[in-house]
Structure formats: structure tokens, C-alpha cells
Specification:
- With 268 residues, the protein is an alpha/beta fold.
- The protein folds into 2 domains: 207 residues, 2-enoyl-CoA Hydratase, Chain A, domain 1 (Alpha-Beta Complex), CATH 3.90.226; 47 residues, Lyase 2-enoyl-coa Hydratase, Chain  A, domain 2, CATH 1.10.12.
- The protein contains 11 helices and 9 strands.
- The strands form 2 sheets. A 6-stranded mixed sheet has the order 1-2-3-4-6-9, with helices on both faces.
- Helix 1 runs parallel beside helix 3.
- The protein is globular.
């Protein structure tokens, strides 16, 4: 069970139905390594089979979210790798985003300080994003001679903030200010100091005590319908909602409404 999981490359704790991942290399603004990429990928993959954890919060230690791939532990070694080795790495990083999108639990990113490169991708791949007024988000791949198309950025980012804005950020690698991120819809809200993690936990608790089977279905449809026509999406949603109408949570909600009480959802 993941409640007892002992993480090696980040902090992991579970409180009730909510899990928190804290990237924990504060001396370098919490960069990722080959090992932490792989462990995060495997953890999110395993969340598909975890029944007790309903929501995941992703954050960084000591005032920063994530500075991206570690320069000396990832970028340096990549310059000495063969093409097959490099492709193994880029596929692994993409698999992390796939795993985040495929797990049934909503993922909430609480972003403070630096949110750059792969860190910006982790925030982008989350279902909710909360930031601080001073956080700095940059998809800075072009600054190291790479394309902006990394880990699904050219597909996901335009859907969040629009094609033109995404193109500017991905071509230039410039920093998106917190206010831009909020106005463009990247951040759901901007909060000061301790209010950031408080808000993330409040939202997590709200989701975790709701109809979690239905939340998982909403997440699945939000992801899958990107590649559907409108007619296909309407049919997929008809089928998804019919499945939800077979759950006990749906019955509980009706019975609570009839009794003028608040429903107690159990996710079944």
C-alpha cells in the first residue's frame, strides 16, 4: 500500500485520503534527477491501483517548487549519451506526464518561487495549480538549445493558456509572471505565504470528501476528450455518466437530498 511507501528521492506523506509529494533538494531549488524522474513516474503509475488515496498535492521545499532537471546530474550526462540512451530518457520523462494524467486522483500543484523547465511541466500536468504572487514559471528549454516541445508542452500548454501565449513562452523561454499565469488561466489562484499550502490542502480535502469515483471519471474525460470530436465526446460522456449513475454515491446523494441532509460520499 502506498500509505506506507518510503520514498527515496522526495518526501511523501499521507494524511487521511490526501497524499503530499514534496520535492526536497532546497539547496538547488529542488531539481529533478534521473532517479527522481523514475521514482515519480512509478509512484504515479501505482496510484492507479491505490484505493485509499483520493487526491495528491505536489509541492517543493523551502520556498521553491522545482528548478527543472539538475544541470550537472542530468544535462551534463545527456551530452555524452548515445541517441538510444537519450531517447530512453525523453520517453521516461514523458511517461511521468502520462502517469500524472492517467492516475484517477486529482493532482494539485502548490507553486512557490522557481517553477522552471521540467518543474513547469509538472505544474502544467497537474489538474489544479495554485501559486504565490512572486512565483516565476518558465518553460526554458530553448535557453539550453532545445525545442519547446518537451514532455507534452506543445499539446497541453496551449489548451490551458491559448496557442499564441503558449507559443511565446515555448519559443522564447521567458518567465511567465504570476499575474500573467493567473490572468491566462494557468494558475487557479495566487496566495501569499502559508496560505498557499493551506488552500491546496483545503481543496484536496474538499475533493477527497466528495464523490471520488465521479471525480476520477471527470479527470478521465477531461484528458480523453482532447482527441475526440464533439459527437464522440457527447457519447463518451453519456456512457461515463451512466456508469456514475450506477454508483452508491449517486444513490446516497438522492437519499440525502430527499431527507434534506448533506450526502456522505464514499467513492463507491
Amino acid at each position: 500500500m502506498l500509505k506506507e511507501y518510503a520514498a527515496k528521492h522526495f518526501l511523501w506523506k499521507v494524511s487521511g485520503k490526501v497524499a503530499e509529494i514534496t520535492l526536497n533538494r532546497p539547496e538547488k531549488k529542488n531539481p529533478l534527477t534521473f532517479e527522481s524522474y523514475a521514482e515519480l513516474r512509478d509512484l504515479f503509475r501505482n496510484l492507479v491501483y491505490e484505493k485509499e488515496i483520493k487526491v495528491v498535492i505536489l509541492t517543493g521545499a523551502e520556498g521553491n517548487f522545482c528548478s527543472g532537471g539538475d544541470v550537472h546530474e542530468i544535462i551534463g550526462p545527456l551530452t555524452r549519451m548515445s541517441m538510444p540512451e537519450i531517447l530512453d530518457f525523453t520517453r521516461m520523462t514523458g511517461d511521468l506526464v502520462k502517469a500524472m494524467r492517467a492516475c484517477p486522483q486529482p493532482v494539485i500543484s502548490a507553486v512557490e518561487g522557481v517553477c522552471a523547465g521540467a518543474g513547469a511541466i509538472l505544474a502544467m500536468a497537474s489538474d489544479f495549480r495554485y501559486g504565490t504572487p512572486s512565483c516565476k514559471t518558465a518553460f526554458l528549454f530553448t535557453r539550453v538549445g532545445l525545442a519547446g516541445c518537451d514532455m507534452g508542452a506543445c499539446s497541453i500548454l496551449p489548451r490551458i493558456i491559448g496557442q499564441g501565449r503558449a507559443a511565446e513562452l515555448l519559443y522564447t523561454g521567458r518567465t511567465m509572471t504570476a499575474e500573467e499565469g493567473f490572468q491566462w488561466g494557468f494558475y487557479n489562484a495566487l496566495l501569499e505565504g502559508d496560505e498557499l499550502i493551506i488552500k491546496a490542502r483545503q481543496m484536496a480535502e474538499q475533493l477527497a470528501t466528495g464523490p471520488t469515483f465521479a471525480h476520477a471519471m471527470t479527470k478521465k474525460m477531461l484528458h480523453q476528450e482532447w482527441s475526440m470530436s464533439i459527437d464522440e465526446a457527447i457519447e463518451a460522456e453519456a456512457e461515463a455518466q451512466a456508469i456514475c449513475m450506477q454508483t452508491q454515491d449517486f444513490r446516497r446523494a438522492y437519499e440525502a437530498f430527499a431527507a434534506k441532509q448533506k450526502p456522505l460520499f464514499k467513492g463507491d
